[in-house]
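Recall the central idea of this unit: under ordinary conditions, the amino acid sequence of a chain determines the structure it adopts. In this exercise we apply that idea directly, starting from the sequence alone.
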Amino acid sequence: MTATAATKCDCLIASVSIVRTATGWPRCYFITGKKMPSSTRHIVGLRTYSFAVEERMAMAWQPTDELAQAVALEVLLHGPLGRSEIARRLDLAPATLTRISTELIRAGLLTEAPHAIKRGAGRPSIPLDVVAEAHHFLGVKVSGDSVASAVTDLRADVLSYREEPLGSREPHAVAAQIARIARGAVESYPIDALGIGLGGVVTPRGTVDSAPFLGWVDVPIARLVEEHLATPTFAANDLAAFTEAQHWFGEGTGHANFATLTLGVGVGFGCVANGRLLANADYGVGLVGHWPLDPLGSLCSRGHRGCAEAMLTVPAIERDVSTALGRDVNWDEVLELFAAGNSAVERILNSSGRALGGLIAAVANLTAPDLVIIGGEGVSLAGVTAEAIQVGIRENRDPRASSVRVELVSGDNESWCRGAAVVAIQGYVRARKRQQG
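Accordingly, the structure predicted from this sequence is:
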């Protein structure tokens, strides 16, 4: 054992040690003992005395009943929250909320936040918050040529990030690579659950029905990874995971209705309605990629003229700019040329921005969201063509309708990993309910 902390008084010594088991999962040992000088010895330079060892496994998310689960989730998603606010949100009697919150604090799931909330002339309220650092999750994003991963806490804040080439597209090899990454993460963090996000159709049980970029059909990727690790593993379509991350911890928090659009190699669309992600067996097929936007636009890979794939994806824009300039141009150079005022690039990007505005208007017209969140590696298109986007929205939306709120979020791989981690968080905190069912 390695002593990590110690407290000593005249009659009692208490120390806490963290050790790692053979499986790689950490356990906490709480060591207490009465002072008995005749039996002293040294551990890592600290004087200790006769002691008894009590082993406790790392704290799990286990609210005692449905009401406790509801309280814990409310604080996780919207905290810190005062007790009166929680009671109001969940329609709980004050005495019931007091009982539940006391149990959750005692269990280590919740804690009293350090700063009181002052409302009116009454006494300040001590808000409740989750102990976010008490749990850790690994989110993995698998693409056609790389595997990115991030360790997060219970609120999906990224603690570490890494990226490496995909060694093989063979399912068992991918599962083994993910397992190796997870074992490496465990060296620094106790991982409670693992989430995998990838482009394709993924069932709720973590089976990939189809993922064309990997050449997969009917691959139970979550189960394959669990064969390597004693860790709960979940998998989902990467866009669904991204949307859920925005729903629980991102720009969509607090909104019952919002939409997401992602720009990159493809175009993705997600929708949360009445607080739930809209998804069916076709989610992950990428149907919005062929939504018509410009009858005079370029052709997509399937021969559609002016669809979202032809107008908004990074490869399509790179192709059009390269054709216009007579040389190969990558995305970073496209943005540099636009900023420098290159007329050809300005014309192409503004045309794409106007088309994006048309797609945003279509989403708003059909789903009535509170806001539209745009992300993905091609999100810079929305950032540099804001005026053209507004033109496209106005052209395709009734002037009597309310304005469309648009929010841009990070387009780096870390955001996709964070989405995968949220899939793990959701699976983990909902596990008790599934077990009861």
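The chain has 14 helices and 21 strands.
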